[in-house]
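Re: duplicated header lines in exported structure tokens

Our pipeline writes sequence and tokens for each protein into one text file. With two proteins the header for the second block appears twice in some exports. Here is an export where it did not happen, for reference. First protein block:
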Amino acid sequence: MPSEANTYPAITLHQPWATLIAEGIKTVETRTHNRFKCLEGREIAIHAGKTWDATGAHDVNMRGYVQGLLRPGGHVFGAVLCRAKVTMAGPLKPDMERAACCPTEGLFGLTLQVTEVYDPPIPATGRQGIWQWTEPEMVSEIEVRWPESGKSRVVPFALARDTEEYVGRLLRSHPAINQITITRRRVQKGSL
């Protein structure tokens, strides 16, 4: 059962806006309403919807907010790309245009500071408005290699102490082994 510690309010954005936020290029998300004011001071998930905003991407390209042309190829759709802290929510000032990658006059918005980028992005089904997203559980994965034989084995572990216990048992049962290389990385639980 998920804990509250890894459940976040989420907003779904058309591409390329979600990617521009995850890359730290777009630090202000704009809205014509102030219904997202309740997110101020909170950490939220940024979800890339399944729609490409061709008009907005063209406008960004023409105004020179980013280097190079924005095209739909290479962007992720239908996934949470990052988490961000909402440092301000409310009316926007005209001087925030570059941070928003669009005109801001008369708009409301969220000023965002990215706290974590998911690599790879985590597939999820988005919704309109504010919705709750639970970050999947993660486990550690180690790869144990035997230098002399070149053999290796990948083993997932939920806790670091399990990893140490496994390596200890391995060394005790194979006294000829004098070196094991262990690399750790996080993988989405269930994908092992």
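Second protein block, exported in the same file:
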Amino acid sequence: MASKITLGSRIKALRLEARLSQRELAARLAKRLKGFDFTYLSKIENDRLIPSASAILGLAAELKVDSDELLALAGKAPADVGDMLQKSEGARMFFRSALSSGLSEDDWKKLLEEIKRTIPVNIELFGELVLELSILWDEIEELPGEEVLAGLRAPDRLIVMNERRKREMEQKPGRRRLTQGHEMGHWDLFVDKSKLDHPMLFEAAAPGIVAYRSSRGGQVQIIETLLSCEEGIDLLRQMKSRADTADEARSVNRYAAAILMPRAIIIDEAKKIDRTHWPNLYRLAERFDVTISALRVRLEQFNLVYLDQETKRLYPSRENAQGQTRLLF
């Protein structure tokens, strides 16, 4: 049985056909993309890193291949759209037309708004196109009792998803998507981009020595090289984790919710259903591909649902719940 063609395997095959080493191809890309090197290329070829759209376009140009094919293999569009780009010349013509049409900044923003209006929102595409962040699945060390879902490597513009937690996040894609949105919120709201190219603490150590990571207790800062020795692990156990402040947690969670459940769309869709029945809310959460708890919190922000914590009864709004309470007395 023929092995499945992946983005990494396709790029490697094209590179070998061009008689280029990883270093040679990376050197060419480095002229187009700042910071691109052979280690980055090795991760792409081994399907350990999803490159940015600009990196894919650069690779396509250097390897003399249709960029649409690589974009489709990278999952830069929903599966059906990716298949269409591979099979339909008309679809590729439309994509090229959009690239060559000389759209103004406002036109591109409107186009991106249309992308974001697709339900469920493609959170990874949003991160790539709007924030220019890449996503890498890799193992992240966890201390005993710690659950780490993801990390943000700001200098590399990289969201690292914990491969140790891949199975459970794939079983609950809403949780994975919210985790990615959470990290995007930290990048967009709290990272000082002007300092990314400046020397950092422990600059002599490997990149990513200090990372902020999502866990059930909030964002945890950990010095990764300390995990390599017992003394370091003991020190980490004694260190206080840097959990999100209440305002920061609220901000990044609302940021993620705003991407995944845009205000105008979620309000319109919520008003079409009976919000006092859990099955209806579960179906709505499934449509937006978010967790039921995230949906409930989002609807509560717009006063479109209220959960009585004692009775667990749902009301269409806080005022309805208060009205029912007054009637009982």
